[in-house]
Specification:
Largest sheet of chain A: none
CATH superfamily of chain B: Cytochrome c oxidase-like, subunit I domain
Order of helices and strands of chain A: HHHHHH
CATH class of chain A: Mainly Alpha
CATH class of chain B: Mainly Alpha
Largest interface: A-B, 53 and 65 residues
Helix content of chain B: 55-70%
Structural class of chain B: mainly alpha
CATH superfamily of chain A: Cytochrome c oxidase, subunit III, four-helix bundle
Structural class of chain A: mainly alpha
Shape of chain B: globular
Radius of gyration of chain A: 20 Å
Number of domains of chain B: 1
Oligomer: heterodimer
CATH architecture of chain B: Up-down Bundle
Shape of chain A: elongated
Number of strands of chain B: 4
Number of strands of chain A: 0
Strand content of chain A: under 5%
Distance between the termini of chain B: 18 Å
CATH architecture of chain A: Up-down Bundle
CATH topology of chain B: Cytochrome C Oxidase, Chain A
Distance between the termini of chain A: 56 Å
Helix content of chain A: over 70%
CATH topology of chain A: Four Helix Bundle (Hemerythrin (Met), subunit A)
Amino acid sequence: MPKNLLPMSDAHAYPHEPTGVETRKLGFWIFLSTEILFFGTLITTFLIFKGRDFPGIKLTDVYDIPFTSVSSFVLLMSSLTMVLAHNALETDDQEKTRVWLLATAMLGAVFLAGQIYEFTEFYHKGFELSTNIFSSTFYVLTGFHGLHVFIGVVLLLALWGVGQRQRGLSLNEGMNLEFIALYWHFVDIVWIVLFTVVYLI
Amino acid sequence: MTKIIEPKKQRNIFSRPSSETGIWSWITTVDHKRIGIMYGYAAFFFLLVGGLEALLLRIQLSQPDNNFLSAAEYNAMFTMHGTTMIFLAIMPISAAFFNYLLPLQIGARDVAFPRLNALSFWIFIAGGLFLYSTFLFGTAGAPEGGYLDEEVSRLASAPNGGWFGYQPNAGLKYSPGTAMDYWAIGLQILGIASLVSAFNFITTILNMRTKGMRLMRMPVFTWMTFAVSFLLAFSLPIIAIALFFVTFDRQFGTTFFLTEGGGDPVLWQHLFWLFGHPEVYILILPAFGIVSEVLPTFSRKPLFGYPAIVFAGFGIAFIGFGVWAHHMFASAISPVAQAGFGLSTMIIAVPTGVKIFNWLGTIWGGKLTLNTPMLFALGFIGMFVIGGLSGVTHSVVPADTQQTDTYYIVAHFHYVLFGGALFGIFSGLYFWFPKVWGRMYNETMGKIHFWLMLIGFNVTFGPMHWLGLQGQVRRTWVYAEETNLGFWNLIVTIGAFILAVAILVFMANWIYSRRKGEKAPFDPWDARTIEWSIPSPTPVWNFSKAPEIKSLDDFWHQKYGEDEDGRAVRREGTDELLLKLEEEGLNPDEEIHLPSPSYFPLILAFGLPFLGYAIIYKSVPLALVGVILLLIGGFGWGTEPLEEEFETSEENPDAKESSTYE
């Protein structure tokens, strides 16, 4: 395709970008800023109810911190592989990019599997969604995060699929690796907060 | 000559939509102007629906002990009236203005993400239809032994828990049936629409400004759009989560807001108003922006204290997040919180007052043209001041606990949202009518509309103040003859019908002027901002050349200079300049790239209601339909090439030079 034409993309470069940040990236940052409000509201609700005294089974009766620590570690490592994928793409090493993307998706999937296992365990121990306010806040908060990880895995796999094309991936067009990386790191950071708030304190 | 480069057809799930006229061109459009117009018409339709609901309420209340509506129907009507007016009428009409005007005011070709813009619009439509489908499919029951003995009509099968859905009243126990689920999920869908448009507008304002359009040179309407977008972006996630909780409570047996399981109904109030109060400013700030454009134009003076008005707007937006609990003085919050929120409520009146004085300063000593948009803008100031002052009375906690849930509150927020927001919106509709349609509206009919509306408005909502102070309680279906509330309630109902007539005059004017109105020049008001420097109606490509901005009110300064006394003097050659601008605006001599239309926003948007139905009816097939639509939409969207391959036109094989914009 002729390179000399003005790209008419979703974010068309008209006529320049006064902030100096690429338009789509700017939009993505704003999206992430609202995500903070989403999780902020959930975490606040969780903390409000955590301090209340209400009879019944609590998270502390069922959880297994070593297990969750391992799955948290897996998720954190996926941020590393994400960075490696980004680095590989910067040097235009398509094959490595794909490998690291797939690795990130797999680590994310392992984390999700761990969460599903954990939920099932809790469920069998009588800690169900509607058992009491603690279980409800726990499942909705961590489940909402799990949904984000799931969407991230889907996006990573889609990106990996797009990378199979002849042209490969590029840093500044199409399904952009950088945005998905931003999203992935954001979801990871949220998990660090969640793990601390929900399991440790 | 005009050369618009056509995108080459490419294979995707569907080929690119290609029609340029007819219904498909509107359905697949990503043009901000068309989306704005569609937003406007859809929102006006819902305004009429919400108005009809209000008339039904008023007929019921026109006499004591009336039984025109059943109690159940009355509950459904006031809930839907509030929900419709806020989420389906005022917000989207503001979005119509944002869409149409924002790119024009900052000199851009379109918004930052045209397809996301179409997505916002279609999600809004999908959410509105979903919410209203409750009249077809929804059921509203009553708790055992409740008020509902009579057979439930379709009119009553709508959400009935009030527009702020207080818990536990709106929970499953006291509002059985599916209607409140339609409400919760419908608002969720509508919230996504506004959230998406907020990202889009923030990015557009930050990144799509033309050369020289520094932040402090932006028109005030653009500034207010900016403030509103931030309010949307930071308040909607809160209500989204709260609505999630409601849906979980109603569908999956959790107890977030129910004391039985350790939950807390007051948490709902906090979360709701933490969104709900910024929402008030989401509704009013666009009108602030509109009158800030109209007043200087028709006073023939620059806006008095431009930076003050801009910063006051952001002050309001910021403090707007710190006053929410003044809606909750009658609920269980501590005296310290009451004092704090009472104070912050007084403080937020300060930036609002700054704006009022700025507007007064603008018209002070100006050469006023009292045409319809100006009359509406002046009416706006008057009515908004009344509403604002009764608002300040709520900051006095002991008084507020008396006023809570009486007609005094109803009077207050109608003065702010009808006398404020809607008057501002009508001012804008008349003001930009020539720009959008290329024809003038009928001035006489416009003035009749204004006076009918001003009188009808005050007759409707004025008496509500003293009805409220006499103790008429909000949301009650009947009142007894002995209360002596009958006379003023009848007056209020008469006022409501005057308002209905006013709206009919407006519609007649609109329909007549759209077809038969005088042809409008492109700058009929001798206006100040750059959207008036291009032809009317706006060409598809907006500006044929990216304008370069040299000052605030740039277009005005192109036309006018100053004499020694600082009076505005029309520059020599202004007439030639205007002729040249029109000629240039109609005949761009550059290649113009327009964003390509797309089916995928529509497909993606209509996946959401199916997911909503799936949750309500616990139906896997419906969920599958929804997910499949989302997947098709998302996949098609993602793989639709961002960079179109363009066919270079025959006459101009070397498109390279001319295509680089600037």
